[in-house]
Amino acid sequence: MDEAALGKRLQLARKRAGLTQQELCQKAGLSYSTLAKIERGAIKSPSVFTVASIAAVTGAALEELLGVDTKKSQSPAPPAKKRSKTGVRFVYFDVNGTLTRFFERAFAVVARESQKSLELVETLFWRYDASACRAEMTVGEIDAIFTKELGLKNFHWLDYYLENAEVTPHIDELLQWVSEHYKTGLLTNNWLGFTDEMIAKKLIPDLEFTVIAESAKLECAKPDPKIYKLAQELAGYESTEILLVDDNPAYLRGADQAGWQILRFDGFEPSDSISRVKRALEF
To answer: For the segment 105-139, what is each residue's pLDDT rounded down to a tens digit?
Structure first.
């Protein structure tokens, strides 16, 4: 048995299921150290029962995880609905600043309610945002810090975030058009579970996205090269066949360095950006 290859297959199945290592351990009844070692390929011939437990939780086929059905596991990705003139077959959309905008308005609301300065609220958020997006800290841990620093009881950043973010004008129509013609996914730097909440609150259209790659679930964030590699594996296409639509130049540079096609979205001028997306995806 190739333990390293097995570990990579198990890790990919976990990430496709949108689970952190801790969440998978809890659902599969495994210890964290055991799962971590298996994913690193550090356990020689892991028990088939352990792999079966992981398969059951992640929804993956046991044979595929074990590498038995090699024909299936090595089969190419199914053809996309369309291929653009530039070769795009899969489109990833960013969320904050692209599909939605203006969540930063929450800073002023929090400052007013806490009677603290806007600068303090912004500093606290940006101090911990990257850690939350990479799941290095839990949402609860950061909420507790805000509660203490701002003097607000039972502070929940998610509530302020959802209340103040708004859907980018005409983005629903764009997503409907893109998803009709192309495989479509989300690639977002977001706190754990926030993307699901945004879909539930209809800040993001509830489409059948092929992939929802939330940074906190992948435990890495844009522009780390690792997240583009994982997102490409989840999409199942060659790097040159993926287009990232994002508002952040640094995140677009990361995608460009990964070999993806890129397009900058301007949330302040969405009509022009939407037109450019459609031109980029002409077929």
So the answer is: 999 999 999 999 999 999 999 999 999 999 999 99
- Do 191 and 266 lie in one domain? The reply is yes
Residues 55 and 159 in one domain: no
What is the domain-level CATH number for residue 194?
3.40.50.1000
CB 97 within 8 A of CB 267: yes
What does DSSP say about strands 166-167 and 100-101: parallel, antiparallel, or unpaired?
antiparallel
- Which tokens hold the place of 43? 């356990």
Residues 34 and 143 in one domain: no
Do 180 and 274 lie in one domain? The reply is yes
* CATH assignment of the domain containing 27: 1.10.260.40
What's the 3-state SS for the chain? CCHHHHHHHHHHHHHHCCCCHHHHHHHHCCCHHHHHHHHHCCCCCCCHHHHHHHHHHHCCCHHHHHCCCHHHHCCCCCCCCCCCCCCCCEEEECCECCCEECCCHHHHHHHHHHCCCHHHHHHHHHHHHHHHHCCCCCHHHHHHHHHHHHCCCCCCHHHHHHHHCEECCCHHHHHHHHHHHCEEEEEECCCCCHHHHHHHCCCCCCCCCCEEEEHHHHCCCCCCHHHHHHHHHHHCCCHHHEEEEECCHHHHHHHHHCCCEEEECCCCCHHHHHHHHHHHCCC
Domain boundary residue, one of 116, 149, 164: 164
Per residue in 175-213, pLDDT (tens digit) is 999 999 999 999 999 999 999 999 999 999 989 899 999
Q: Which domain holds residue 186?
A: 90-99+168-280
